[in-house]
Amino acid sequence: MLTEIDFSSQQEHLKNVSRTFALTIPMLPEALIDYISNAYLLCRIADTVEDDPKAAVDKKISWLKSFSLFCKEGFNDEMELLKLHRQAVDLVRDGAVDKEFALISDMPAVVKRTLTYPVKIRNILSKGVSILSLGMSRSLEGTEIKDLNDVDHYCYYVAGVVGELLAALFYEHNHDIDRKELMALSVSFGEGLQLTNILKDRLVDKDRDACFLPIARDGSNSAEVIKEYLAICQGHLDDALNFILRIPNKESGIRLFCLLNIAMATATLKLLSDADTDTDRNVKISRRTVKILYILSKMVVRSNILTRMFFSYISRGVKRVKRDPHELRSRVSCWERLPF
Asked: Rounded to an integer, what distance in angstroms lies between the CA atom of residue 216 and that of residue 155?
């Protein structure tokens, strides 16, 4: 009989596969630490299969679609879980780094922990991870990024849906939260964080013949496109700030988790704004900057006024383009449309 992973082992996996979220998730209220860590590991399992450099693309697509259906049906089919686990181990055995392979090896135990959660929590994780996995399979089938609409849809499947998952979990934790308004901002929140990563990693992605921005193949328009998307990204991070301000002040752990993530993203955008778009491939904020941002975020997070002032200060000088987060979500989101 399969047994669940214990909390400490789950958190060890989190620390091994994500430096950023291993830092910020422990800031959350106790129950949410467990749920969101588990959700992250489920998403990372799918991501490890999608990104494996040696596995056959058709096999990865097939696995992700099967995993999406398994999640959609509530994680309950133990025989399917064992089959998916065997397939995942075979797929990533030669391509995954040791810590990712260790997570894949513990996949059944991670899912078994998911099944211990309250029904409403399981349903949220079921929907979010299923949409993400299906989106990854579609990306592998061939996604050509021609314009902003394509960027929006790509970012939704890998990050916007995670914003929705977080918003839904936050509401279940505290029903004083305006769920409708938080969900309306959640996709823009996720896209802001994902676009930051895309912009930061664009040269590394180029090395593996991948591009998630509408840049001409000869790179002739790259500088202009990067400048445009830096501004678009900051606009999404402004929406992320509004997302935080709609969470009650007393929920300082949730607010701090979100605020530190967008503060680090904004600090990264400032570095990218000054970097050489053709040569600077290792743009990242220092540990000292992270520590300063953490201290300042913790100082201001209980006050909407101070939080807004802090974010305005750290994002000064960064151009932004304001978009409609409600329109964005209505155009790209599957959260309410799919039959879960």
From this structure: 19
- How far apart (Å, rounded) are the C-alpha atoms in residues 54 and 314? 41
Contacts of 142 (CB under 8 A, 6+ apart): none
What is this structure's pTM? 0.94
Token pair 């990854």 is found at 136
Phi-psi region of 39 (alpha: psi -120 to 50; beta: other; left: phi over 0): alpha
Using alpha carbons only, how large is the chain's radius of gyration in Å? 19
Token pair belonging to 193? 């964080």
**For 165-176, how does the pLDDT look when each residue is reduced to its tens digit (9 = 90+)?**
999 999 999 999
Residue 174 and residue 314 in one domain: yes
Residues 108 and 181 placed together within one structural domain of the fold: no
Domain that holds residue 25: 7-118
Asked, for residue 130, whether it belongs to a domain, the answer is no
Report residue 31 as tokens.
């129950």
CA angle in degrees (0–180, nearest 5) for 14-289-306 = 95
Compute the distance between CA of residue 88 and CA of residue 107 in angstroms, rounded to an integer.
9
How far is 6 from 113, CA to CA, in rounded Å? Answer: 8
Q: What is the CATH number of the domain that holds 267?
A: 1.10.600.10
Rounded distance between C-alpha atoms, residue 212 and residue 174, angstroms: 36
CA distance 300 to 288: 19
* Whether the Cβ atoms of residue 225 and residue 215 lie closer than 8 Å to each other: yes
pLDDT digits (tens, 9 = 90+) for 181-225: 999 999 999 999 999 999 998 888 787 777 889 987 666 668 889
**Residue bearing tokens 């096999």:** 59
* Joined tokens for residue 294: 């953490």
